[in-house]
Amino acid sequence: MQPFELTLTEAAAAIRTKELSPSELTHSVLERITAVDARLGAYVSVVGDAARHAAAQAEREIAAGRHRGPLHGVPFGLKDLIDVAGLPTTASSRVRADHMAEADSTVAARLFEAGAVLVGKTHTHEFAYGLTTPQSRNAWDHGRVAGGSSGGSAVAVAAGAATFALGTDTGGSIRVPAALNGLVGLKPTYGLLPRHGVTPLSWSLDHVGPLTRTVQDAALVLAALTGHDSRDPASLRTGPASDVLPADGGLRGLRVGVPATYYFERVTPEVEAAVRGAIERLRELGAELVEVDIPMARYVLATHWGLMVPEASAYHEWTMRSVPGLYGSDIRVLLEAGELVTAGDYLRAQRARTLMRQEWAQVRERVDVIAAPTVPMTAAMAGQESVEWQDGTVEGVSDAYVRLSAPANITGMPSLTLPVGRDGAGLPIGMQLMGAPLAEATLLRVGQAYEAAYGAPAVPAAVLA
């Protein structure tokens, strides 16, 4: 096994026992980037010299007995919305061609404090305003979309071109590409991870979170990033709640909500079969399955778009007036549309969000976790604009991908996706676990229990030519 093939947990253990050095691991990952990224398009930029220097520094610190923890000496990728001092933050847009970050974002600073080694900035759908990331290609089938908007981060981790990565999630932008590339992706509780120094898409929906190859890896990254930051007005002062499960690692007493409505409507048969099979395995591990109805389902997309579109347009107001031609045509149309949303419509979306949060809270009183498909279908073909469902309805690809992930953004509850199978073409299928605000520990424990009992080995994609 090559070092780039190791999960974060495996790499951390090998570094701690000095079976592997940070320099060896970083060199392996950089070589992997050189070998595969021309075909995958995961990275906007690679900082090889800086990464080697940081790895050597980590190696010296560890040798001197100053081991900072499990991220020390581990290479990672950072979505190019997230500032690192002295590096461009392009947001994969010509609008930001000359932008240079003056200071580290909070999450980048915390990773550097933990000793992690940045290898590069990863592609996003322009300004995170999309679900496909067209610059990047799916790690398992290059003719298909990577998912978005954190597509570059997902592809890098899936291909072994980063040991872990950070992304952002406004309507599924961590969980969608994670599911489509066979990864674990965590959208934490709204406000749990600070967003200072992160280019916004929609201030009331944006989250930062990790993309990793295992659930344990995600837990390690989350622990390094959690903590209040007064520079983000939404940043929480309260940390994650304690786990509701017994310490023996089983799922006895866990109540898993199984949606009777919404989440299994307009999904492919292979996705439904894989996720229902995974839910049944949770029962085999000791969980109790409880049927639940999803509240206000018909208003999900309208509420999500009613919040996101005007907030995005407000952020881009000045550049849309000064340099509109630098935006991609798809993004420019969305930003122009946002300028037509009335204050009344925006307020109605905010009221709908309040009602939705109240209704979801009542559902969560009956269960500890809700389990459902992350996305309704596996990775679409590149350039595919719509999908026709068995009932004859036609849906845009982006609408299809955001449909099942948006409720967690609207309500602010945490959501974890993990791989639970593959379709007939070998493409990954993801299941998401949703819980009460600050219930990350429970979601991670459930994910770890499933992964330990039924998960496939977390090996990187082969990246065939």
UniProtKB/TrEMBL annotation:
Enzyme Commission number: 6.3.5.6, 6.3.5.7
Keywords: Ligase, Transferase
A UniProt-annotated Pfam family: Amidase
Protein name: Aspartyl-tRNA(Asn)/glutamyl-tRNA(Gln) amidotransferase subunit A
Keyword check for Ligase: yes
Entries under Gene3D superfamilies matching the protein: Amidase signature (AS) domain (3.90.1300.10)
InterPro entries the UniProt entry points to: Amidase, Amidase_CS, Amidase_dom, AS_sf
Amidase domain boundaries: 24-444
Transport as UniProt keyword: no
One GO MF term: transferase activity
